[in-house]
Structure formats: C-alpha cells, structure tokens
Amino acid sequence: MRWQYLKEGDSVDIIAPASHSPDLKLSEGLGWISSLGLIPKVPHDLIDPDIFFASSLKQQLAHFKEALYSDSKAIWCLRGGYGSMRLIPYLEKMKPPKKPKLLIGFSDITSLHLYLNQKWNWPTLHGRTISQLGLNIQSPDREELIEILLGRKKKKTFDQLRPLNKFAEKDWSIKGKLVGGNLRILQSSLGTDWELEAKGKILFVEDVSERGYSVDRMLEQLHQAKILHKGVKALVFGDFSGGDEKNGENHIHYAIQRFAQRVNYPVLMGLPCGHGEENFALPLNTKCELVLGDNSHLICDYGGK
Questions:
Q1: Which of 63, 113, 126, 206 is catalytic?
Q2: Do residues 188 and 111 make contact, with C-beta atoms less than 8 angstroms apart?
Q3: For residue 71, with 0-12 CB atoms within 10 Å meaning exposed, 13-18 middle and 19 or more buried, which class applies?
Q4: Is residue 275 annotated as a catalytic residue, yes or no?
Q5: 11-149 adopts what CATH topology?
C-alpha cells in the first residue's frame, strides 16, 4: 500500500488529536502549507481546549473520521502532547478507506502511526507537526519535506549512524520495515490492542525531556515484556533531547549504551529525527535497508506513488 504524492490544488486535512497549540503557530503552519499551493482543510471547531486536549474526544474523533474518508490525500496533525491514543478504540470499529492516506506527525502521534502501520498496513510519515512549520523557520529538513510530499524525493539515506554494540559493527545489511516513534508512547502501547509489534522489524525510538533513569526504565519494561527481545532485526535511536540531571549531567547515553550491550541484535544511534532542532521526515512501515559496519547508514523508501 502506498500513499499518493501531492500536487498544487490538493487538499490536506488538519486534525488536532492531542494537545492544543497557540493560534499563531496554527496560522503560520497553515500559511506554510498554503505557500506550497496546497489547500488546508481546517474544522471550524478544531481548537476548543479543555485541561489536556485540543478539543473534546467527540470533536477529535469527528475530525479524524472526516479526514479519513474525505477526498484529501493527506492528514496532518497540529501537534503532539497527549491524547491521540484515546481515538484508537473507535478506529477499531471503522472500516479502513479503500486508499491509504498519508498521516504526518510525531511524538504523541506515535499511537496513530502504530495503529495505521500495524492494523491497516498503511505507510505513514514521522515528521514535523503543523505547529513546527512556522513561515520564519528555515531548516533543511523542512525543505526536504516539500520534496517528499510532492514526489520529487522518493528515497532517503540517513548517513553517519553510530554502532553501539558488536552486532552493529559487522559489515552486513538488514532489510525490513521500519516502525516505532516516541519511547514513552511505545511503552504506553503495552497491553493494548495496538501494542508495538517489533518482531521482524527495524525499530526506531526517540524522546524528549526524559532523564537517563527514565529512559532506562522504559527500555527495561519493553525488554521484560519481550517487545525488545528476540526477533527484533535492529534498533536505531533518534534524538533524545533534554533530560539533564539537576547537576547538569546527562545520563541518557549511558542508559542507551548499557541497553545496547545486553541484546543480540544491532543497536545504533544518530537518526536526526525527533524533538531536536532538526526533525527529518522518517517513513514508517515502508521498505528500508540498514547497512552496518564502519559506514553505517539507513536507506528508506518514503512509500508514495
């Protein structure tokens, strides 16, 4: 299954399945999308915030259902935060549209990526949310995102990955589908109907503002739950920004390095994806090849047609 490339005049549905965002970030993000010749479709009640969410569950669900079955080619999320997982029990009652649509977002949107990747077999795009698309933002990942959406860039090679254990240092390659996203949300999937299925996959993980012990704890739980156990083809870490201790030290790399030494599959670090200054679009549930050794890199198909 492949999503359709966008062209001038195509519409894009905007949803806010998690937290709300300041009006300025929304308007600037919509302005950027419009500058590409695309037409953003925004529900009139997209933002009606309560304590935690951009709007009520009823509103969020109605927006997502409308986006799934409308004539648009893509669904773009406003921001992460918290709330997307509440939609999944209702998605399970829906019949998948005949053609897959491109879902774009990251962080809390990981729950929707997992569901669409695993249950509907849709390819999706882990990338900037609307709130990160301000007109004054200049970054190579945003410029590359344009090329991806319009079909000018169909594959990507992520260079300079750093092997973290002996299995990643050998000269060999692994082919498989890439899944994953935010570590906290992957942990939250445990015991649910949309629980992370990493067996036979290349797993990607990122997070923000989690201290070293917290990263260690989440990896430990996923390992004990046998999610990060036998059968995982490889694990590639993206950005882990923030998370400093009170004394200014940062123990995240120690937690990751220690985990890498205990598993019998390749573990690497260095994908420029997640909550860092750059957030390159990463295709999920598409064909990828991970080349290991001194020149470790990941080659991915974006999944469009």
A1: 206
A2: yes
A3: exposed
A4: yes
A5: Rossmann fold (3.40.50)
Kindly list the domain boundaries of the chain, sorted by start residue. 11-149, 155-301
63 is annotated as an active-site residue: no
Residue among 20, 63, 126, 275 flagged as catalytic: 275
Which residue out of 19, 72, 107, 189 is catalytically annotated? 107
Look up the pTM and report it.
0.97
User: What CATH number matches the domain at 155-301, 1.10.10.10, 3.40.630.30, 1.10.10.60, 3.50.30.60?
Assistant: 3.50.30.60
Q: CA-CA-CA-CA torsion for 278, 129, 69, 185, nearest 10 degrees?
A: 90
Strand partners, 288: 176, 300
pLDDT in tens, the chain (305 residues): 999 999 999 999 999 999 999 999 999 999 999 999 999 999 999 999 889 999 999 999 999 999 999 999 999 999 999 999 999 999 999 999 999 999 999 999 999 999 999 999 999 999 999 999 976 667 899 999 999 999 999 999 999 999 999 999 999 999 999 999 999 999 999 999 999 999 999 999 999 999 999 999 999 999 999 999 889 999 999 999 999 999 999 999 999 999 999 999 999 999 999 999 899 999 999 999 999 999 999 999 999 99
